[in-house]
């Protein structure tokens, strides 16, 4: 940015004027041209040259121009602010000027929030617009950063009150004027400096809110290891500050999303992973490691997440924060809702809270309250919910990061799971009251509701915690763990080693464990509930990995299979997301389990019900293919067992009989290959490719692979597209080799979930890709020469 000329003193403007000022006036004796100044200021703001600040004008000129344009005296105030904020100033007068500017901007910001953030033009909020245009934002940044400047070895200091005013004005300008937040985000040294302002409780909330907004638009993720004394800063936060700090952490530890679905293809992800390997850890990974190195960090998060409402901060502390919310506009809608709740309960409980107007306070900084003031319980609960939302999110992200095992160990040690279990009924899945908090412009079923968001975040945490990890058994209590052991004993099978190794001092206490509680609310969930998807995902994660008969029976005994079938068949669920989660869960629940197939046949006891079930399966194979895979694998195992119970199920079960038919398998196989292509493969639909491979691997075991390939060729010809399907399948298998042969985690998951060794997966793919046209098991043998197109480069352009 171009250096600003020396400040024009009052009364000194008539004798000497800068060229910029002359140009703005249109000559020495002319009048200002309408709109010309603002246009030049905007141009200067964009280019960094020409007119950029109020100090480039005389006070006389600004005063005269203000009479016509009604700038509320803001440019003149900025002129004075610049003159009183020099390095040797005591900042007393500077603070007084800030007090004059602040209400001019806060009124507009309040109007912006209460008008539901409608799309507006900049000129709708002229004060904040003019403040920014005349260089107010850059000037405040310089004032805030004065403590980073040393004079003769001593650093300058400004008061917390003055910092608070600067932060408030900056935030209000960000709220109302487009582009300000992005410009601040580009000042990396300023963003890092803001973290240091959080050491003071007086400026913490303002700083945290501004940082959160800035990081939300910052193109490159900030690195926490660049924040001075990060460990000391975080360690000195009280629990309330730490919970609010989690809002910032949510932005700094999550991998940045491109926002483009095309970039979420496996091709793009693989390319990104190769690039990441050469670049080293991402900023998000570095930030996660920085946080985990802070002593006691995860332990404090676990305490916050499991803290009961009665253990939260006292009324006075909460009222002080509510006063901050009252003046801090980002939370105005939340406070508005909280106040409505308070008023409703006040009528019944004779409890009242008196909130002063902004700025009014006692000498100790607390709002005026009567001696008998009591905080309504619902406000305490909502206060705790909003904290826990942020904390659970951070824990969830850490659980999915590179240090997953370390985080798992700490979460278990600090008893997060039993703590959440104790909060389940009274806080997490509490019954909605008539006065449940709903944000302005939303309803109780909206995903924006804190109640709703807490439930979803809780379910996501359970999913991450249980997924392919032996600590999942901490979701049970001692009695339920004993039940698992009894199931294994009765079935005459070895107990699961992870159950035997579970530390009983870390499991849930009480009559029911967390998994059982989840099943209970899941079965009561209304048909249209958005929770069904997340509930099914959380329970399914408990079953993922190597199939456990005891785990399946534990859930079957609690009526889970019947509930799923009711939702799929009797309620005729329409939501694709919910259907997919229910099909995936049903597949894990039934896989290799004879008792589950007996229960299925008992529930689906008519042809009409079975046809509805098949209709749901066939309506979208991307959603149902995991169930098709599990049933196919189960059929193969059952057919190789000599057991009366198994033979009975094979002869009676409609589903097994349906899958056993070769035409059925071929229909599934053709459609599974046809609905995916290398360029459109994602983490969601790659399962279709693996399910098609399972069908062909099992055919290979029975020496029927050539038959299946020949049938695919005939189906191609019947559809008038010779070579189209098999060429596509050839490309998909080439990609499969690139994708899975270099990723240990995915290959392990394939092996564990199918009970087919990964070497057999690799061999089958190699056989299918054999270039020898004389091989009866090679794809090329079934693609006629004129239609051959197997060497296409499928890397993204």
Q: Please indicate the percent range of residues in DSSP E strands (runs of 2 or more).
A: under 5%
Specify the number of helices.
40
Any idea what the shape is? elongated
Mean pLDDT: 81
Question: N-to-C terminal Cα separation, in Å?
Answer: 39 Å
Biggest sheet overview: 2 strands, antiparallel
The count of strands amounts to 2
Helix proportion of residues, in percent? 55-70%
From the 3D structure, determine the CATH topology of the domain at 50-115 and 126-219: Leucine-rich Repeat Variant
Low-confidence stretches: 1-34, 116-123, 258-263, 322-341, 350-374, 433-445
Category from helices, strands and their pairing:
mainly alpha
CATH architecture of the domain at 50-115 and 126-219: Alpha Horseshoe
| Radius of gyration, taken over Cα atoms and rounded to an integer in Å | 33 Å
Strand order of the largest sheet: 1-2
Q: Brief overview, please?
A:
The protein is mainly α and 797 residues long. Among the domains are: 50-115 and 126-219, Alpha Horseshoe (Leucine-rich Repeat Variant), CATH 1.25.10; 661-796. A two-stranded antiparallel sheet has the order 1-2.
Features:
two-stranded antiparallel ribbon, 62% helix, disordered N terminus, Leucine-rich Repeat Variant, 797 residues, Transient receptor potential cation channel subfamily C member 4 associated protein, phosphatase binding, 40 helices, mainly alpha
Walk me through the structure.
By secondary structure, this protein is an all-alpha fold. Among the domains are: 50-115 and 126-219, Alpha Horseshoe (Leucine-rich Repeat Variant), CATH 1.25.10; 661-796. The protein has 40 helices and two strands. The protein has a two-stranded antiparallel sheet with strand order 1-2. Strand 1 and strand 2 form a beta hairpin. Helix 4 (74-83) runs antiparallel to helix 5 (92-114) and helix 28 (560-570) packs across helix 31. The longest helix has 23 residues, at 92-114. The protein is elongated, with a radius of gyration of 33 Å. The two termini are 39 Å apart.
């Amino acid at each position: 940015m171009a250096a600003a000329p020396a400040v024009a003193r009052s009364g000194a403007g008539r004798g000497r004027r800068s060229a910029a000022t002359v140009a703005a006036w249109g000559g020495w004796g002319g009048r200002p041209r309408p709109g010309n100044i603002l246009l030049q200021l905007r141009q200067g703001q964009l280019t960094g040259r020409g007119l950029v600040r109020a100090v480039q004008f005389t006070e006389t000129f600004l005063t005269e121009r203000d009479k016509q344009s009604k700038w509320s005296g803001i440019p003149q105030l900025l002129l004075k602010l610049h003159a009183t904020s020099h390095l040797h100033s005591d900042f007393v007068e500077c603070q007084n000027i800030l007090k004059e500017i602040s209400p001019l901007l806060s009124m507009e910001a309040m109007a912006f929030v209460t008008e539901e953030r409608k799309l507006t033009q900049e000129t709708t909020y002229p004060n904040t617009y003019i403040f920014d245009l005349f260089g107010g934002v850059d000037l405040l940044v310089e004032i805030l950063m004065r403590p980073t400047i040393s004079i003769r070895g001593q650093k300058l200091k400004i008061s917390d009150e003055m910092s608070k005013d600067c932060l408030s004005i900056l935030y209000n300008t960000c709220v109302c004027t487009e582009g300000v937040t992005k410009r601040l985000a580009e000042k990396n040294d300023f963003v890092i400096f803001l973290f240091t302002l959080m050491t003071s409780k007086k400026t913490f909330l303002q700083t945290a809110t501004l940082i959160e907004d800035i990081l939300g638009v910052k193109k490159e993720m900030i690195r926490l290891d660049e924040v001075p004394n990060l460990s000391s800063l975080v360690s000195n936060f009280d629990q309330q500050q730490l919970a609010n700090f989690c809002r910032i952490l949510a932005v700094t530890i999550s991998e940045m999303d491109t926002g483009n679905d095309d970039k979420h293809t496996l091709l793009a992800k693989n390319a990104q992973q190769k690039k990441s390997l050469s670049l080293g850890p991402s900023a998000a990974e570095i930030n996660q490691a920085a946080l985990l190195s802070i002593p006691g960090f995860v332990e404090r998060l676990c305490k916050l997440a499991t803290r009961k409402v009665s253990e939260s901060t006292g009324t006075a502390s909460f009222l002080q924060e509510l006063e901050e919310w009252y003046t801090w506009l980002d939370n105005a809608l939340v406070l508005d809702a909280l106040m409505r709740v308070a008023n409703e309960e006040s009528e019944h409980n004779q409890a009242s809270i008196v909130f002063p107007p902004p700025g009014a306070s006692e000498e100790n900084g607390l709002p005026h309250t009567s001696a008998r003031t009591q905080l309504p319980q619902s406000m305490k609960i909502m206060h705790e919910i909003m904290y826990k939302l942020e904390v659970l999110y951070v824990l969830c992200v850490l659980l999915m990061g590179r240090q997953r095992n370390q985080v798992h160990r700490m979460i278990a040690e600090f008893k997060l799971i039993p703590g959440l279990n104790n909060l389940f009924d009274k806080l997490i899945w509490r019954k909605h009251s008539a006065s449940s908090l709903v944000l302005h412009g939303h309803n109780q079923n909206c995903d924006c509701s804190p109640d709703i968001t807490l439930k979803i975040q809780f379910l996501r945490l359970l999913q991450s915690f249980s997924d392919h990890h032996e600590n999942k058994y901490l979701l049970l209590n001692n009695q339920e763990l004993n039940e698992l052991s009894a199931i294994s004993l009765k079935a005459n099978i070895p107990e699961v080693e992870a159950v035997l190794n579970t530390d009983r001092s870390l499991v849930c206490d009480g009559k029911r464990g967390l998994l059982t509680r989840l099943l209970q609310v899941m079965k009561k969930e209304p048909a249209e509930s958005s929770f069904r998807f997340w509930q099914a995902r959380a329970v399914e994660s408990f079953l993922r990995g190597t199939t456990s008969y005891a785990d399946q029976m534990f859930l079957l005994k609690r009526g889970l299979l019947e509930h799923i079938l009711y939702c799929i068949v009797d309620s005729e669920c329409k939501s694709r997301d919910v259907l997919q989660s229910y099909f995936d869960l049903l597949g894990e629940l039934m896989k290799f389990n004879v008792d589950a197939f007996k229960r299925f046949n008992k529930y689906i006891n008519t042809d009409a019900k079975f046809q509805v079930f098949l209709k749901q399966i066939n309506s979208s194979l991307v959603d149902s293919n995991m169930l098709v895979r599990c049933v196919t694998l189960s059929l193969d195992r059952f057919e190789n067992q000599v057991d009366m119970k198994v033979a009975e199920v094979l002869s009676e079960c409609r589903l097994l009989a349906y899958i056993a038919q070769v035409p059925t398998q071929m229909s599934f196989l053709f459609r599974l290959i046809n609905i995916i292509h290398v360029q459109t493969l994602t983490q969601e639909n790659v399962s279709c490719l693996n399910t098609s491979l399972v069908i062909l691997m099992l055919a290979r075991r029975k020496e029927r692979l050539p038959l299946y390939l020949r049938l695919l060729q005939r189906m191609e010809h019947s559809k008038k597209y010779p070579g189209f399907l098999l060429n596509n399948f050839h490309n998909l298998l080439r990609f499969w080799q690139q994708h899975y042969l270099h990723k240990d985690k995915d290959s392990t998951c394939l092996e564990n979930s199918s009970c087919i060794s990964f070497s057999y997966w690799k061999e089958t793919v190699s056989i299918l890709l054999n270039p020898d046209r004389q091989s009866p098991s090679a794809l090329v043998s079934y693609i006629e020469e004129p239609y051959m197109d197997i060497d296409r480069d499928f890397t993204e352009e």
